[in-house]
Amino acid sequence: YKITPKGWAFLDSFGKNKDSQTCFVAMSFVPKLDWLYKEVIEKAILETGWRPFCLKDENKHSEYITNKMIAGLRKSRFAIVDFTDNCYGSYYEAGFAKGMGLEVIHMVNEKHLKKDAKEEDKLHFDTTQISHLEWYNNEKKTPELIKNRLIEWIEATVGYGPDWKGE
Description:
The protein is of the alpha/beta class.
């Protein structure tokens, strides 16, 4: 048997959820990062016409969180994952999403990419070669800057979603 280019295209489409309107968000749920989700990530997703799905918003359930995560990723078109504070769950979610063939936008606070960072603050070596949207501590006062940069990454990675209003 021989797989044709059309066959490869068909096989390549599995797991990519091309018709999904959802962006899965993975990040640490610590209160100090609430602003990052509400003022940056959620707004960027909505402004590009996608619908956010974050387990932080789905906290009323009696299931294992992993089941909710897998179900959410299986229904999503792409994922935005923030690795700030080396949230181990974020590594798991990003890997699962990539394994499904989803696009993953990686984000992280600048402190994790500094050469002189403490060993426990550095990103895991398996992800350091991946481009991360690096956000800076001084931008906390102006989340609009980070949001606009994330919008550019979404546009470049997956384009506009079905709810995009256009300009």
